[in-house]
Design the sequence.
């Protein structure tokens, strides 16, 4: 997922946007200080995860932002409520819209 996030970021930078990618390699314990320091002053925050958007990284980040009064447009990009599939990693990324291009479309819809 980080590789796709970096590919998406590169495309956005080429278009003149300032973009930051953070690899949140673990959710527990969540690096609250990092979430807060890197989200303040941003025009948008997007989480990108390869599983359900409910109860994952996006939910944890949203809780931190809200509980600390960080008012920034926010979006979770991941698997929305649906049944799983079986297949190769490439197939599953496309099936669940988890590619760099899918993330790009989400971010562009926010800015």
Sequence:
């Amino acid at each position: 997922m980080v590789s796709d996030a970096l590919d998406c970021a590169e495309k956005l930078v080429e278009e003149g946007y300032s973009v930051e990618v953070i690899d949140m390699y673990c959710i527990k314990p969540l690096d609250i200080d990092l979430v807060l320091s890197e989200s303040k002053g941003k025009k948008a925050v997007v989480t990108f995860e390869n599983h359900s958007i409910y109860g994952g990284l996006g939910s944890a980040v949203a809780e931190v932002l809200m509980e600390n009064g960080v008012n920034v447009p926010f979006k979770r990009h991941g698997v929305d409520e649906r049944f799983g599939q079986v297949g190769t990693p490439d197939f599953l990324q496309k099936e669940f819209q988890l590619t760099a291009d899918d993330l790009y479309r989400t971010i562009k819809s926010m800015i």
The longest strand covers residues 45-52. The chain has a mean pLDDT of 94.
